[in-house]
Amino acid sequence: MPLEITDNIDALIAVMPPEIAASLKKADRMADLLEIVIDKGRPCDARYVDGDVRILDREATDNEIQYVVDHIGNFGDDNRAGIERTLHRISAIRNRTGKIIGLTCRVGRAVYGTIDIIEDIIFEGKSVLLLGRPGVGKTTMLREVARVLAEKRRVVIVDTSNEIGGDGDIPHSAIGNARRMQVPHPSKQHEVMIEAVENHMPEVIVIDEIGTESEAAAARTIAERGVQLIGTAHGNTLDNLMMNPTLSDLIGGIQPVTLGDEEARRRGTQKTILERKAPPTFDVVVEIQSWDQVVVHPDVATSIDSLLRGKPVAVENRHRTEKGIETVRDEAESEPAFADETIPFSDVTPLREWQQRGGHPKPLKIFPYGLNQDRIRQASQQLGLPIVIVTDLSQADVLFTLRTYYRKRPRAIADAERRNLPVYVLRNNTATQMEKYLSDIFGLQKTASLEGDALKEVRQAIEDIQLGKVESVQLSPQSAYIRRLQHEMISEAQLASHSSGNEPRRRVTVYAGQ
Description:
Elements: E1 4-6, H1 9-14, H2 18-27, E2 33-39, E3 44-48, E4 51-56, H3 62-70, E5 80-82, E6 89-94, E7 100-106, E8 110-112, H4 119-122, E9 128-132, H5 138-149, E10 155-159, E11 179-182, H6 189-200, E12 204-207, H7 213-224, E13 228-234, H8 238-242, E14 254-258, H9 261-267, E15 272-276, E16 284-290, E17 293-297, H10 300-308, E18 315-321, E19 324-330, H11 351-357, E20 364-369, H12 373-383, E21 387-389, E22 398-402, H13 403-408, H14 411-418, E23 423-426, H15 431-442, H16 447-466, E24 472-474, H17 482-497, E25 509-511
Parallel strand pairs: 9-13, 9-16, 10-11, 10-12, 12-13, 20-21, 20-22, 22-23, 24-25
Antiparallel strand pairs: 1-8, 2-3, 2-7, 3-4, 5-6, 6-7, 14-15, 16-17, 17-18, 18-19
Helix pairs in contact: 6-7, 12-15, 16-17
């Protein structure tokens, strides 16, 4: 839909001193007006989209400032005031005694149609964080999001400075059917956020300018309760948020991690690196570059992990044009499937592919919770699969546990899920169940197929020996069931190796893969 702007500009001009109001009307550029700046002892300026214009050549006095103060609402603890039932914001500058000596009067506009560029994301039910520099239009877009969502869902706005819903007890019509909760003091914003969830059963919470650790923690609590969260924060890009120690928790938080020598060599990094420590509060981050252009991170967790590893990030560049919304996707470059012999177990490779490469799979590090460790080892030996039992969760690739333990959610299992560690829940504590899960993880084929492949491999080895190509053969790890067939295979190999006629007998050695 085309952009539709409502600004109630006449209400702002009406509270200006007569001389300043006359100058603004004479300039006749109300549509481009952003702010009016009045400082004691300095000429007054009007800030337009294309630059500043002097609107009062003489120095402003206390009279001009007091005139504005007398015609607007009361200033809060955040030194902001407004004009009732409008979106305009007047911010005060005070001296050391508390006297107002400067005013910044910002024009508040309701711009309908601004969220068509991200409307599909908003209605997916995901929590979305809007980033952008001051004045780029974060609050304007947030207000429109609240209005559109309120047509179908229960929306509550936590309005700290009355900038979203306007000044006064009756909110501006620009928020539609959304309800608005005012905040008595900026330091209480996080408490009102929690109160909104507990008392008013919202499906969506809208919050402007998340800026403190307590507000970030409240945002995480809201998201974990299943409520969609739409918020804004200052910062041009996702990188800025990562480096902000106060707000980095919004995208999962960043912590230093010490790697082992082998892992550091594999990654080609130092032993101490930065890692994301928890799932992000917000599923999607939108970097607002202008009203007509945004950059979308559709998967914040993946974007953060890629940035920390110095890899390209998959984003969507969206532009509003006369023809509609155009989306250009920048896909992250995929790494080669076998770039390194020691592939991490998060990217499990089937044994057949390892065998084709002539390599060996990396041992799977298992943290067993409430399971018989000997049975796990027995299952791995039966399948010929490499595993290591670990007692430190930070060293594990996966966690194995029983259904009864998983339902109780002990600390170890909760920690594993916070680390995004795969958790495998077994029905019972038997070797058969463990074999099944190990087979799935390593990508084994069905037993019959594996046995057939193993026999075929041995017969080929016997043929090579008979032809004199080799004297011994190392069987691959792919033949996981060779141990079960080893005796009959060895017997078959020995029988086939007997010479016919007067030819000398060859010595045959067949090694079962480990």
